[in-house]
Amino acid sequence: MRNDPASTATAVLARVGGPANVTSAAHCMTRLRLTLADPAAADREGLRAVPGVLGVVDGGHLWQIVLGPGVADAVAAQVRTRITARPAAGAPEAAPGRPADAGARTGEAVGRRHDTPVRTALRRVANVFVPLIPALVGCGVLAGLDGLLVNAGLLPALTPALSSVASAFMALIAVFVGHNTAKEFGGTPVLGGAVAAVVVYPGVAKVTAFGVHLAPGQGGVLGALAAAFLATRVEKWCRGRVPGALDVLLTPTLTVLVPGLVTLYGLMYAAGTVATAIGAAANWLLATAGALAGLVLGGLFLPLVMLGLHQALIPLHATLIDQQGFTVLLPLLATAGAGQVGAALAVYVRLRHDVPLRTTIRSALPAGLLGVGEPLIYGVSLPLGRPFLTACAGGAAGGAFIGFFAMLGAEVGATAIGPSGWALFPLLAGNRSPGTLAAIYAGGLLTGYLAGFLATYAFGLPRPPRTPAAAD
């Protein structure tokens, strides 16, 4: 039975120090992300005991509450409503000239000191790209459907329209990246989008930089990210120096002009070079050492998720999708979830008398098969310890399977990021027929399931002690 999002939001807020202690709330597909002014006021164990909470990841001021797909967004909406309307009753009066929420901002600054620069940078980059995932998924599925119809010669009157709907977002993704970048780094979102739009404007083909004509889209999402970040710096510089009477005119103009010219005569070329290098490196790695690369990526992805370092892969995925139409990394990484499912099944078989744990596994397996691994990670393998390691072994085996076929020339990619497991099948793309791509990816999943099961069954849990034979 699904828990009421309003009740869950109330219970969560009560255990993180109340609405006044939450400075911001966001969410991804499975997690509610809360920025706390005072992390010490949160009760980790109390949060874990809330019905519907599958796990808790605390990282200084940023706390992530794992709720699962379809729940995280509903609870996040309820949390945002409560922190927006939080009462001021009981709070000390603000000193003259000091904002009432200055204390909260001071607490947030203290909490941020517990973050490392790397974790902070990865979190902020993720905040730029994660909101784009729903559109990537929707357009990716439509692109796959359009490809199937074209290959089968079906509905020729519909496929041009379907292609337009599927491709429009990717053609303008730089604008959305610029908007989100400016929003994340404290600038005006529409100005960030305006500067990033330079990257995809067709007229840039008339501009020459470093002796060559620019190409629309050159630099892709990396160029848009850099352009919008520069725009926020210029805007903040202007806000502190331009007289108030001229601010409304000069600040937007300079914010678009200066970063726009820098983008045309530097950032697009540099970002395009980096993006090309990323694509070439990914293709070379899989073509020459695909099995080893799949082994490493599939085996390490679950620990990366635990540490939050998987966020570093988001701009790489986005760059590959923007450049090649698909990311060859995601199917390899998706096998980590398959290893997790196999490990959970082995635990289910071995621990026949642990009814609560078996109930948790039964309820979490459907999500795990669809690529949502947090319920199994936080509810099963991580608390038990060794099954988490054997799940990584299963993911490594599945990744090596797909990587081996990459060495044979079969590129298996995904047109969007976010889904994995069985949910990734509609998003598969590459240089082989849809049936071949599906067969290779399915083989990777099955390998992950089997290796994770066998490793966990053999090494993941201690064997129950033998009961001494009763005396005659």
| Beta-strand proportion | 5-15%
**SS-derived structural category:** alpha+beta
Largest sheet: 4 strands, antiparallel
Q: Please tell me the total number of domains.
A: 3
Average of pLDDT: 86
Number of helices: 17
Radius of gyration: 25 Å
Question: Order of SSEs, N→C?
Answer: HEEHEEHHHHHHHEEHHHHHHHEEH
Q: Would you identify the regions where 5 or more consecutive residues have pLDDT less than 50?
A: 88-114
Ends apart, CA distance between termini: 50 Å
Would you report the number of β strands?
A: 8
Helix share bin: 55-70%
What is the approximate shape?
globular
Spatial strand sequence of the major β-sheet: 1-2-4-3
Describe the structure in your own words:
The structure is a single chain. This protein has 472 residues and is α+β, with helices and mostly antiparallel strands. The chain has three domains: 5-115, Gyrase A, domain 2, CATH 3.30.1360; 131-275, no CATH class; 295-460, no CATH class. 64% of the residues lie in helices and 7% in strands. It is built from 17 helices and eight strands. The chain has a four-stranded antiparallel sheet with strand order 1-2-4-3, with helices on both faces. Strand 1 (22-27) and strand 2 form a beta hairpin. Helix 9 packs across helix 11 (244-307). The termini are far apart. Residues 88-114 have low confidence and may be disordered.
